[in-house]
Each structure stands twice: as C-alpha cells, then as structure tokens.
Prior knowledge:
CATH architecture of the largest domain: 3-Layer(aba) Sandwich
Helix content: 25-40%
Strand content: 25-35%
Order of helices and strands: EEEHEEHEHHHEHEHEEHEHEEHEH
Shape: elongated
CATH class of the largest domain: Alpha Beta
Radius of gyration: 25 Å
Largest sheet: 6 strands, mixed
Structural class: alpha/beta
Number of helices: 11
Number of strands: 14
Strand order of the largest sheet: 6-7-8-3-9-10
Amino acid sequence: MDSAMIEVRELVKDYGRTRALRGIDFSVPRGQIVGFLGPNGAGKTTTMKIITGYLEATSGQALVRGLPVEEHPLETRAHIGYLPENAPLYEDMMVQEFLDFVADIRQIPAAQRRQRFRLMTEVCGIGDVLSKNIGELSKGFRQRVGLAHAMIHDPEILILDEPTSGLDPNQIAEIRKLIRELGREKTLILSTHILPEVQATCDRVIIISDGKLVADDTVQGLMTGDGARIQVLVAPRGESPLEMEKVVESLQKPDSVRSVSVVGEKEDGLAVDVLSDAAVDARRDIFEAAIAADLALLEMQRQSVSLEETFRRLTMEDGGEHV
C-alpha cells in the first residue's frame, strides 16, 4: 500500500467546556476500507468533519495526502467525497439539476460530465428518478442521490457516514458490494452502527469512545483480541473418573495456552474452556496435551468473540454510560 492518504495527529476538539476529542491518532493508507465505530456522542462525526474541513480542530492536525487540511482546505477537499448521515440535498431541485449543480461546484469539465453522470446513474441506481424533485423521493433514493453527490468528482477518498441508512435489504447488499469495489482503488472511511456491515466490508476497524481511541485492528483481530476461545469436551480413556484439577493442569501445559477453566460436567465428559494466544491455533497443542494426559478428546471447537461483544466491552469499559 502507498503512504497514508489520511493522517490524524493528536486531534483535540472542544465545544466550550466540553472536550469532544481527546488526542485521537490514526492513519489510513490508500486502498483500505476502515470502519469507524463508536457510541453516539463518541466523537465520530466531529472527527470526520475535521478531516473534511467542515470544522477546525482545537489542537492537533488532520492531513489529507500529506497536506494539513486547515492550511489547504480547497486542495484537500478536492480529493474527498463526503456523505453525511443526513445528506445535504436541495429538495426543490430535480435530481439531474442537482447533480449538474454539484458538477459546476466541483468544476468537472464538460467533456467528462456525461461519462460521470452515466456512471453515477448506473452505480447508484437513480436512473428512474433523474427527472423527479428530490423532495418527492423516498429516504432510500435520497441516500442514493447523496452518494452520487459524494462520488461525482471521482475522489480518491470517500468518507461515508451511515451510507445504508434508510435502504432496504437489497439496496444495502448493492451498496456493500459497491463499497468493496471502490475499496480496491480508493480510500474509504465508513461510519455505521450496523456491525455486520463492518464485518462484510471493512479491512480494519477503528473504535473511539468518549473522544479517545480505544481500538485499531482488523475485524478478526478485534474478535480474537483477548485470545481465541476453544471449547473442549474430554472424557477418561479408562474406568477411572476425571479429576478436574489434573485436566486443567494437563491442558494448560502448552505455551500457546493462556488459561483453562472448567465449564461443567456433561453426560459424556467434562466441558472445558481454553483461552489461547490469538495469533496461534492451539488446537494441535491441546490435542497432544490431552493424549499425553491419557484423556479422550471428544470435541474441540475454536470460537471467536462477536464484533458486537468486543464493541460493547471496549466502549462500556471506557465510558460506562454509552448505548
């Protein structure tokens, strides 16, 4: 990947006596799709508005392609397409008229407009509403027009705030597919409350809470960040009953195992939870440890924590009041 397309350095934002951002740091390289998550009021929208030049930071910097946004507002905005949660649309304008207006503002050459309009009409599925007033459109079609607005100048960076809000399941699937395709050549920051959407589309996840960065990892990394849990069911190979302490001691011997806890006795054996290093698949080590201890290994299943569980743990631990 190329050098960072977006950099956020020690970003602080105050609204009067309220500190919305408390020293946020991250960077996003070209061609990466980043899920930007956090509870309501965590500072997501404030961060995106600073990156796009709609707000000034109290301190710290946001850089786009290496340029400070505050010092080069027009040049940096030319590289960004921004779709706020409530797209700023002129309701008394027809869709075609509105896109013409946006093309004028973006100074898209006349020779390129027809191609860009055709592509946006196809990609965003707005061909049937070009001659309708925006105020007459459903929430889903308004969102599509907003997406066309954000992409019409072919920006290298897309910042999308709840891009599938108001769409039906088929439209959501189409937008997800579009986001994945765009991520092959563009840099995307996707803010959403729909966590399955993040799992389906994002290469990386940044989570903020109470104005602070609390996680920055891949989806898989966040789901196994505390280690991978492996559910194990063991039974004696002979007539002697199992001794829980010896089972725990035996299964805890491999270096890849962090901890072992007994879940409870079942009709056919003893259920045990094994917490292993997230970077290592410890199942082979557990199998060999069970054999060495003369245990019959009846079941073994590697599980990961859901992204929702990780999100709740990180944000509740940090603030305690968020929902």
